[in-house]
Design brief:
The protein has about 300 residues and is mostly beta strands. It has 1 helix and 20 strands.
């Protein structure tokens, strides 16, 4: 049954990827979704991957949020592609993911594909990116609460530096994985992570803040419940009205129960979150899409 669930996941993502191609042909008011070429990952590879906004057209030169997804199925033992880092690139104008092709049995490993996306739009003004980093040791859970300073409001967030991989040099599967990355108020982003196995590592939370007198984002969400060892997909409703999708978030319950596997952004301004339930009990994955009126900033604002 679990193997069948993985096959369904692969088939579902092939369909979703076809829908993504329609996005780029159709376009979207004020924003454009750029999708990278698909690349292959070997067992427990962790390459740095980026997708960049086009710089010739200033209307779509600024990066907001992005995503990572794989059309390869997640197996019943959790083998699949997951993000170690999920962050925007201000100077390079794009989106960065360090994916891991996590495989607890690399002797029978399967190569898997990964594709990145970034939402591109007009310059909104200078962004302030509060960061927090801490060490997470095996068995620990750490949470970072990042609040936009002063008169700045949240537009989204991300995370960095999680480390979990399959067996390396005799050590069992180990490392840090993100258990949530989400807005908890109009000014605050929260990131949590947990470490397991023989070694831990660092966890970094990142918020992206813009000057505004009023809150900037609204949220739509959806949840899926998975039994032990199952894969689940949760797709949010579309962003309402003229609001555009700008960032995604996720949360898991109970914490530590689910490996988050990213998921694609869709033509109707919704997003899918994918996860694998690594626990022995039912677990819930919630996908969150953050929506905003995307407008250019006044002339003369410095870009970042």
């Amino acid at each position: 049954m679990l193997a069948a669930a993985g096959a369904v996941l692969g088939a579902s993502f092939v369909l979703l990827f076809a829908q993504l191609l329609e996005i780029e042909r159709a376009g979207a008011a004020n924003t454009k979704l750029v999708t990278s070429g698909t690349s292959a990952l070997g067992a427990n590879d962790t390459p740095r991957k980026t997708v960049l906004c086009p710089q010739k057209n200033k209307r779509f030169a600024f990066p907001y949020g992005g995503s990572m997804f794989s059309t390869s199925p997640i197996y019943a033992d959790g083998a699949g592609v997951y993000p170690h880092s999920y962050e925007r690139l201000g100077v390079q104008h794009g989106w960065h993911v360090t994916p891991v092709n996590y495989d607890p049995t690399p002797q029978t490993a399967t190569a898997r594909d990964v594709t990145l996306q970034v939402v591109c739009g007009p310059e909104p003004g200078k962004l302030t990116p509060p960061h927090k980093t801490s060490q997470v040791n095996p068995g620990e859970v750490k949470t970072h609460v990042l609040t936009c300073p002063g008169r700045r409001q949240l537009i989204g967030g991300g995370f960095q530096r999680t480390t979990f991989v399959g067996p390396i040099r005799g050590a069992p599967p180990s490392g840090v994985f993100a258990t949530e990355a989400m807005a908890i108020s109009p000014k605050t982003w929260q990131v949590s992570g947990e470490a397991f196995g023989k070694f831990g590592g660092e966890l970094t939370g990142i918020a992206y803040c813009r000057r505004s007198r009023k809150p900037l984002i609204s949220e739509v969400s959806a949840s899926v419940t998975m039994l032990s060892g199952q894969v689940g997909l949760a797709t949010t409703p579309p962003c309402p009205g003229k609001r555009r999708f700008v960032f995604s978030g996720f949360t898991t319950f109970p914490r530590g129960s689910i490996f988050y596997a990213g998921g694609p952004i869709h033509a109707n301004q919704s997003v899918t979150a994918t996860g694998y339930n690594r626990s022995m009990a039912p677990a819930i994955l919630t996908a969150e899409a953050y929506c905003m009126n995307v407008k250019s900033s006044p002339k003369g604002k410095k870009r970042r």
